[in-house]
Write the C-alpha cells for this entry.
Amino acid sequence: MRAALGFRAHSGWAALVVVAGSIESPRILERRRIVIADPEMAGSKQPYHAAAGLQLPQAEALVRKAVESSRALAQEAILARLKALRSQGHEVSGCGVLVGSGKTLPALEKILAAHPLLHTAEGEMFRDVLIWAAKECGLPVIGVREKNLDSALLQHIASLGKLIGPPWTQDQKYATVAAFMTL
C-alpha cells in the first residue's frame, strides 16, 4: 500500500503523521513526535536566539553546527520510519512539509539584530531541515503553506480523531493534510 509522510515543525521537534489510502477512505498508519534538535547541544532548540549575543563568526558557527546536527537527527528519524514502513509492505511515495510564508530572510547580521526575525529564522531552519532530510532519503517533497490549507479538508481530517482516539492535535491534523497532498 502506498503511504506518505507529513510533518509540521516546531523549535526542536516535529509532528510526524504517516498516511495511506485516500481522503475518502483515509488510514493513519502512524503519528509521533520526532526530535530534531540535540538536547545535549546548548542552543540547539533556538540557535538564532543563542547566536544573538555572539560576534558574527561565532554566530555563524553556532547556527551552522545546529543545522548540521538537526539535519542528521531528521534524516535518522525519516530513515527509521521508511525502514519500518517498508518492512510492513508499504511503499512511501512522498513527503509533505508545512511551510511558512516563503519570504526570503535577510543576512544573518540582520536576523540577529531583530528579535522577530530570530523566530522566523528558526521556523524556517527546522522546516528546511525536514525538507533536506526527506530529499536525502530519496523522497519527493512538497511544501504546503498552512494558510492555503483547505478548510473543508481540515474539517474532514479533524473528524478522524473520533475514530483513532487521542492524541489528535492541530499539528497532527495539519501534517495529515500535507501527507495526503503528496499521495
Notes: The longest strand covers residues 26-35. The radius of gyration is 17 Å. Residues 100 and 177 are 15 Å apart (CA to CA).
